[in-house]
Amino acid sequence: MKVRSFQILNHLIKIRYPKKIHDPEKGPLRGDCQPDDCVLAVATGEVPDSMIEHSRWHEQVHLMFHYAGRPDLYEDETLVDAIAGYLAQYEATAKRR
C-alpha cells in the first residue's frame, strides 16, 4: 500500500504518484521534493515497486534535511540516496510480530 501522506515537524506532507516526472532543466526524474509546498512526487511508470519505495524514501530524506536546517546535506545526493536505501531496505525486511 502506497504512503499518501505523513507528518514531519507538524507539516502535513502529501505524496503524489504520477507515472512520469519531467523537469525542464534536469529532464526525467524518479522523484521530486517541494518542501515549501509540503509535497513529494514519486514517478511510478515502468519501474518495480522496490524502486518506487526507494525513490519515496529518497525524497523523504531530502525533506528531513530541509526541516533540520541542513541545506548542505539536503543537496548531497550521494548521502541522501545512501540513507534512503538503508531506510527502504529496513522497511522492506523488518519483521513484525
Name the average pLDDT: 94
What's the count of strands?
A: 6
Number of helices: 3
Global outline: globular
Biggest β-sheet, characterized? 4 strands, mixed
Measured as a percent range, the helix fraction is 40-55%
Kindly summarize this structure in a few lines:
Helices cover 41% and strands 25% of the residues. The chain is of the alpha+beta class and 97 residues long.
Task: Please write out the topology.
Elements: E1 5-8, E2 11-16, E3 21-23, E4 27-29, E5 31-34, E6 39-42, H1 49-67, H2 71-74, H3 77-93
Parallel strand pairs: 2-6
Antiparallel strand pairs: 1-2, 3-4, 5-6
Walkthrough of the structure:
- The chain has helices at 49-67, 71-74, 77-93, and strands at 5-8, 11-16, 21-23, 27-29, 31-34, 39-42.
- It is built from three helices and six strands.
- A four-stranded mixed β-sheet has the order 1-2-6-5, with helices on one face.
- The model has no long low-confidence stretch (mean pLDDT 94).
- β5 and β6 (39-42) form a beta hairpin.
- Helices cover 41% and strands 25% of the residues.
- α1 crosses α3 (77-93).
- The chain is α+β, with helices and mostly antiparallel strands and 97 residues long.
List keywords for this structure.
four-stranded mixed sheet, globular
